[in-house]
């Protein structure tokens, strides 16, 4: 009996998050009445408050779920070439631009930006920076990773909101890789070898 209830709650959560992505994308705003979200998901309003706390927490959870379901599998693991991982990320944001544009300019922009920064942090590992540099202490590696994470997040944020249609994921990928190369140019062990993309 408990297992069936748990599955029902998971289905209801998934329906709510799917409805949130769909409605934000269609309407281009996060200013959605909770009743519209629950009607679209065919669940009770109470579920929003019990499972998420409020509408904005639901919207951020929906964005996080979208990233976990679609982007993380596309980005692959740390062993994948860096350019392929960055390009997968750029394509994801381009494909879902109306949703992310609304999320980054609406009522939940701050928690959405923090969620994006966590995503970028997963692509920049302080341990990896220390591994390839050999002389970065842990604190400096963490600061360097935060600098890269915040910078990438700001560039993607502006690209999603302000760039001309259609978005060009290849162009964004090249921009981010050029920036990465410029940041690591002063450190030969972090810089890409000539003719190769940064890893």
CATH superfamily: Tetracycline Repressor, domain 2
Mean pLDDT: 84
The shape is globular
Q: Strand percentage, roughly?
A: under 5%
CATH architecture: Orthogonal Bundle
Number of domains: 1
Calculate Rg over CA atoms: 19 Å
Q: Topology as H/E string?
A: HHHHHHHHHH
The CATH topology corresponds to Tetracycline Repressor, domain 2
CATH class: Mainly Alpha
Main β sheet profile: none
What oligomerization state is this entry in? single chain
Helix content: over 70%
* Strand segment count: 0
Number of continuous helical runs = 10
N- and C-termini, Cα separation: 50 Å
pLDDT below 50 for ≥5 consecutive residues: which ranges? 187-199
* Backbone structural class: mainly alpha
How would the blueprint of this fold be written?
Elements: H1 2-27, H2 34-41, H3 45-51, H4 55-75, H5 82-95, H6 97-105, H7 109-123, H8 126-133, H9 138-162, H10 169-184
Q: Could you name the key traits of this structure?
A:
199 residues, mainly alpha, Tetracycline Repressor, domain 2, 10 helices, 75% helix
């Amino acid at each position: 009996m408990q297992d069936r209830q748990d599955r029902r709650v998971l289905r209801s959560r998934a329906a709510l998050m799917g409805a949130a992505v769909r409605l934000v994308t269609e309407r281009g705003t996060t200013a959605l009445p909770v009743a519209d979200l629950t009607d679209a998901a065919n669940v009770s309003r109470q579920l929003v408050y019990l499972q998420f706390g409020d509408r904005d927490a639901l919207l951020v959870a929906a964005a996080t779920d979208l990233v976990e379901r679609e982007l993380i599998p596309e980005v692959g693991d740390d062993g994948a070439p860096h350019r392929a991982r960055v390009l997968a990320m750029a394509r994801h944001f381009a494909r879902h631009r109306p949703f992310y544009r609304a999320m980054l300019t609406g009522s939940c922009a701050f928690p959405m930006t923090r969620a994006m920064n966590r995503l970028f942090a997963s692509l920049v590992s302080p341990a990896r920076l220390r591994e390839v540099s050999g002389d970065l202490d842990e604190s400096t590696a963490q600061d360097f990773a935060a600098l890269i994470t915040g910078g990438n997040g700001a560039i993607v944020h502006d690209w999603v909101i302000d760039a001309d249609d259609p978005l060009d994921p290849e162009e964004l990928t090249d921009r981010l890789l050029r920036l990465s190369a410029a940041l690591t140019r002063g450190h030969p062990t972090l810089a890409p070898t000539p003719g190769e993309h940064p890893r």
